[in-house]
Design a protein that fits this description.
single chain, 212 residues, alpha+beta, Double Stranded RNA Binding Domain, five-stranded mixed β-sheet, 5 helices, 27% helix
């Protein structure tokens, strides 16, 4: 398992990199063939956010879906602990799902349970059942102006491009939970439409599809 460490607007000392490697070294005992964990540390310069001045984002890549967790605290060690706890919980959820779907207790799919509902209406949430040392640690420091804002035009804080493999609504909901987001953009396997599943109030979800 490789660990890639990147600092945004901050430096990452060797002591902390060693601590990260030790902290995350046992993840592949819980996860399914973990390949790499990306660790991003961000320092917040706003003096009003001293209690959340350090943010740690963990992104785990394996032969299964991407799993992500993040947390903020007054120092990066505490933020790492919080983010790691979230990541471990999502790893265990993914492991439980694999065991359930391989056995005879395969749960009914969300699509089957909600057949006939309007695609942009509420969708009841489906309940999901709940190492060796790292091979390599890589530090990547970004220059302070890497996220400079242009003088005019919209402010783009971050831009990402992901490969989109068509998937079912069930899989989209599952992967949204694993990355800890309130929405998930995907290509629907049945309609082939770009779609977004999102969390509504309470325990409901909604779906928006683009007819292009």
């Amino acid at each position: 398992m490789d660990i890639v460490i990147k600092g945004r607007h901050t430096t990452v000392p060797e002591r902390f990199r060693n601590h990260v490697a030790e902290k995350l070294s046992k993840l592949d005992k819980i996860g399914h063939k973990v390949i790499r964990v990306d660790v991003e540390i961000t320092a917040e310069a706003n003096p009003r956010q001293t209690d959340q001045s350090e943010r740690v984002e963990l992104t785990l890549h394996s032969k299964g879906p991407v799993i992500r967790a993040e947390a903020a605290a007054a120092d990066r060690y505490a933020a790492l602990d919080l983010a790691t706890d979230k990541l471990v919980g999502r790893l265990r959820k993914a492991a439980d799902r694999r065991r359930v779907h391989r056995g005879s207790r395969t749960p009914i799919s969300v699509a089957a349970a909600t057949a006939g509902l309007d695609s942009v209406g509420a969708i009841p949430a489906q309940a999901t059942p709940t190492a060796p040392m790292a091979k390599a640690v890589t530090a990547v420091e970004e220059p302070p102006d890497a996220y400079a804002v242009p003088d005019s035009g919209p402010m783009v804080v971050r831009e990402k491009t992901h490969r989109a493999e068509p998937m079912t609504l069930d899989q989209a909901l599952y992967e949204m939970e694993l990355v800890g987001h309130d929405f998930y953009l995907y290509v629907d396997a049945d309609s082939k439409m770009p779609s977004v599943v999102y969390r509504r109030r309470g325990y409901d979800y909604g779906v928006i599809r683009l007819d292009v």
